[in-house]
């Protein structure tokens, strides 16, 4: 029974929304956050899997914006994902990599419909906020979900094993994401 106490003021939220409006999103919109990197703190889901499941999702579900978050040094990963999204589906993609401080990221996560990420710090913010989470974790100890899963009641973890070559299929990711949205 963990309790976390994160807070932010209405003024902080309004200031963030003013900044976000320049990117085409606010906390009032319906959006999913995809945080594809981990800055080396974890083994990441192969980046190709992200654009594969996102293409499937964006073909069917158009109502959600996809907001990419990450550090500035993860911008290239996000640009690569966006470049591999079908052109007709790119209108709802927003790249906020390197744009947010920690408090702004917390506010953004707090208003998201779903947070998708590898094992990295922001997934634990989402967990503490009890958000819907799809996390990607390697099977190997000690970096697996047994020790590092987010503490949300609404988290679904998909496991992969890069050493043995067992990866998560895009259909499984797509169906899991869709399960959160429908």
Describe the structure.
It is a single chain. The protein has 182 residues and is α/β, with parallel strands linked by helices. 37% of the residues lie in helices and 16% in strands. The chain contains 7 helices and 6 strands, in the order H-E-H-E-H-E-H-E-H-E-H-E-H. Helix 2 crosses helix 3. It is globular, with a radius of gyration of 16 Å.
User: Total number of β-strand segments?
Assistant: 6
Q: What is the residue-averaged pLDDT?
A: 88
Question: Helical stretch count?
Answer: 7
Determine Rg (CA atoms, Å).
16 Å
Distance between the termini: 29 Å
Strand order of the largest sheet: 3-2-1-4-5-6
Question: Uncertain runs with pLDDT below 50, 5 residues or more?
Answer: none
What's this, in brief?
The protein is an alpha/beta fold and 182 residues long. Helix content is 37%, strand content 16%. The radius of gyration is 16 Å and the shape is globular.
Note the topology:
Blueprint: H1 10-21, E1 31-35, H2 47-60, E2 65-68, H3 75-83, E3 93-95, H4 102-110, E4 114-118, H5 121-128, E5 133-138, H6 145-148, E6 155-160, H7 170-181
Parallel strand pairs: 1-2, 1-4, 2-3, 4-5, 5-6
């Amino acid at each position: 029974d963990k309790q976390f106490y994160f807070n932010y003021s209405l003024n902080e939220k309004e200031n963030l929304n003013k900044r976000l409006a320049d990117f085409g999103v606010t906390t009032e919109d319906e959006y999913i956050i995809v945080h594809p990197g981990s800055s080396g703190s974890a083994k990441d889901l192969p980046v190709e899997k992200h654009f594969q499941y996102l293409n499937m999702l964006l073909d069917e579900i158009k109502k959600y914006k996809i907001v990419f978050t990450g550090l500035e040094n993860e911008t290239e990963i996000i640009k690569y994902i966006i470049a591999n999204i079908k052109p007709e589906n790119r209108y709802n993609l927003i790249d906020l990599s390197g744009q947010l401080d920690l408090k702004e990221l917390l506010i953004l996560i707090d208003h998201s419909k779903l947070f998708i990420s590898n094992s990295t710090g922001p997934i634990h913010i989402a967990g503490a906020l009890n958000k819907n989470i799809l996390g990607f974790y390697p099977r190997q100890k000690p970096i697996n979900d047994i020790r590092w899963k987010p503490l949300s009641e609404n988290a679904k973890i998909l496991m992969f094993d890069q050493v043995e070559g067992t990866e998560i299929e895009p259909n499984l990711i797509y169906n899991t994401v869709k399960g959160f949205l429908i």
